[in-house]
Amino acid sequence: MPAGALAGRTVLVTAGPTVEPIDAVRYISNYSSGKMGYAIAEAAAAAGARVVLVSGPVALAAPAGVEVVPVKTARDMLAAASDVFPAADAAIFAAAVADLRPANPADRKLKKGRDDAALANVPLTENPDILATLAAGKRADQYVVGFAAETNDVLMNAHAKLVKKNADMIVANQVGDGLAFGTDDDEVWLVTADDEVLLPLMSKRAVAGRLVEVVAAHLA
Ligand code: C5P
Predict the structure, then answer these.
(1) Residue 176 has what DSSP assignment?
(2) What is the pLDDT of residues 31-58, one digit of tens each?
């Protein structure tokens, strides 16, 4: 990719898991490492973009030249991403947002013995879909990329997700059997309305580089 391919552009990236409190000390989350989102942010910055990385809690250092906005819950992530989205030329939603959150988190620690009923039954409620919410209002000059991790029917589900979430591209991969979550390598399809491109197994950094290249080409 030519250096400076994204010069003057702003790129929003979401990454990592979200954590959703059950009480003051417990939460629901997932195994997302954030590696893909961080690699994308790094690649976009290397291509000259101003990059804002809205990140759930991960064990990764901020990539050089990237502005990191740390968040915990899906609702925090939506608020932070909403602040940046209008200024973004491209938005890449790589976060593994928790679909559900405890409906009534306790602000103290629930105690065994005293709060057994509350601990045994944690009612859940749906989180907002950050990608769908923001992409619903995207302008024609904005390019929006979502991810899809599927165990079955990867391409069919990617096309459905493209339409449902109003994205321009879905990066789709097969998960399960140790694939994707937390690993360093990935094999993905780049799915757009009229194209399906397979990127064979390569490092997440290489996937990120290719993806940023494709996004830069769409913006050009
Ligand atoms: O529907 P699903 O979770 O498979 O969609 C994955 C895509 O949607 C990813 O790009 C993810 O970052 C985004 N997403 C989101 N907010 C949610 C759920 C998913 O932004 N609540």
Answers:
(1) B
(2) 999 999 999 999 999 999 999 999 999 9
Of 30, 104, 157, 166, which is the active-site residue?
Answer: 30
Q: Is the shortest distance between the CB of 22 and ligand 1 below 6 Å?
A: no
Ligand 1 touching residue 90 (CB < 6 A): no
d(CA 71, CA 95) in angstroms, rounded, equals: 11
Question: What is the distance in A from the centroid of ligand 1 to the CA of 64?
Answer: 26
Number of Cβ atoms within 10 Å of the Cβ of 186: 24
**Residue 54 contacts residue 64 (beta carbons within 8 Å):** no
Domains and CATH numbers, the chain: 10-219 (3.40.50.10300)
Q: Is the CB of 130 under 6 A from ligand 1?
A: yes
Whether the CB-CB separation of 18 and 27 falls below 8 Å is answered with: no
- CB-CB contact of 48 with 54 (8 Å): no
User: Secondary structure of 143-173 in the HEC alphabet?
Assistant: EEEEEEEECCCHHHHHHHHHHHCCCCEEEEE
Tokens of residue 215, six digits: 């996004």
Query: ipTM strictly over 0.85?
Result: yes
Query: Cα torsion at 209, 213, 219, 220 (round to 10°)?
Result: 140
Q: Is 30 a catalytic residue?
A: yes
Distance from residue 95's CA to the centre of ligand 1 (Å): 7
